Amino acid sequence: MIKQILQGMVVGIANIIPGVSGGTMMVAMGLYDRLIHAITHLKSEFKESLKLLIPVFAGAGIAIVALSRLFEFLLTTYPIPTNLAFCGLIAGSLPFILKKVKGHTVTIDKMIPFLIFFGIVILMALLGETSGNSADVSFGVVNIIKLFGVGIIAAATMVVPGVSGSMMLMLLGYYDTILKTINDFIDALIQFDMAGLAAGMGVLIPFGVGIVIGIFLIAKLIEFIFAKAEVHAYYGIIGLILASPVAILMKTDWSGISVLMIGTGIITFALGWFIASKLGGE
What we know:
Blueprint: H1 2-16, H2 22-28, H3 32-40, H4 46-77, H5 79-91, H6 94-98, H7 108-127, H8 141-159, H9 165-172, H10 175-191, H11 194-251, H12 259-279
């Protein structure tokens, strides 16, 4: 239970940071297959599915609520060691994924999904240079529908390994707005500010409902793909994973680079690798 909550927290942190994929973190920790199965078989295997889903989603929720400000600070103040820590987490996942394709000969048809998905991540990193203006989330029917739709899109990209849900929110212009709304909602909750709570719920409820529906829809699609072409799907995931550290380093602010920062970054990279090795596997 505790391990699954910690795994969920890593996934939650990943979903806060543009360029880092929550799906990749799931793969890194050996969660991905089991989580997709639990989501798609929730009705038929209700109790067993909840044993996995509750601690993982609770951990993710705790991380998003409790650590969004911390990682906003770390990325602003110490971008190099912070991003290298996530590169370590991602790189540390490779041994677990390579086991999935062990014994299968590398062929052109397997390299095609590898190259396609490698390219998708790099392209998203290039497009993500511009975050767009903050979205209008004032209360209204149109904005509620928009938030619901954005939630579905964000959920899909959060679940797919290698694709950053937060980067997609950034491209859509909702990243800063959603992050600020979460922080403002927590402040309102602490201060018992009913007007602030109502304003926050007006944004977070339709967005949250969209996320839940989006996760179930994409999980069904992913399960279908794995059933039809499992090895090819894993080659695509390997492409996503290998491209993710490249994309993160492309998005990193290197203006404060120094010997100390690089040394600290090497340590945080190793720490990320170590965490991946401990949280990974079944």
